[in-house]
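Folding Task

Wanted — backbone structure
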Amino acid sequence: MVEKGKATYDVKCQACHSTGPNRVVGPGWKGVTERRKPEWIMNMMLNIDVMLETDPEAQKGLEECLVRMPNQGLSKDQGREVLEFMRTL
């Protein structure tokens, strides 16, 4: 799962998110699984529009980054694979 998640990251996420702590466009992913619950991370990946409309933390992130995260059209399985990749960081 981790390898597939990294492959998805390389294609769909890398342009905006680093695997370190630094922000590119969006926040860096290092330690994200310690700061956020898995359910929240999955919702951000799979239901970004709803999260940006209803979740205060997602809205705060949008205010900081000033760029709306696009819907990448990930499947549930792809989201889980990316989450497992995040856990390795």
